[in-house]
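S.,

As promised, the zinc ion run. Input:
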Amino acid sequence: MPDRMRSLAEFRFDEAIEAAEVYLDTGTELELTARDEAIAYAHERGANLVAWYSAGEVVPSCVVAKVSLPLRWERAPLDEPTRDERLWFEAPCGRDVLVGNGHTFTGRIAAWCPHEGVSYNVSRADLVVMSEEARYFVAGFLAGSEPGCPMDVDGETDEADVDAWRAALARFRRTGSWYGRWGTCRVCGCVLLPDAVGDRCHEHPSAG
Ligand SMILES: [Zn+2]
Ligand SMILES: [Zn+2]
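Predicted complex:
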């Protein structure tokens, strides 16, 4: 699943880096260094020690970079959202258009209804009749939304995990749903793959 953007409030530099030791990027290698020594190293170079990537790590990796005070963030322009009429699909009210990421469950796509003037989310399985452009938009969107393969802390993957992951992804490309919760089949009690939304396994689809 795509990571969430990190909060601006998580930015840490110099003494605000809460760690006794850091991995200091000296330009050639990451060197395990006492935090205060690393701060001195940065200050000697007219710069600061910036925690580069520290999400959940005991020993954060740090780079030497100049921080201007008072602290401020880059200002990048906000684009006006655009709607492309070619991304239409048949909805009960007529032709609605796909507009982007729904940002709820993985694979949910944001749609716009010009008839009611409302935004809502759809999944691949909801789209039956659509333009060729919409079909490719959805395929690309889902490919980019695929969750990664399960991996342990050492970066190892389990063979059963890989098989399950590939089967779940194959179904995800058809349904566009990735619920990400554990559940079981109400008929046979097997544990459903994490993309599954309902309470029935592949072998026990609901009647009708
Ligand atoms: Zn509509
Ligand atoms: Zn079953």
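The longest strand covers residues 94-101. Residues 46 and 73 are 20 Å apart (CA to CA).

- D.
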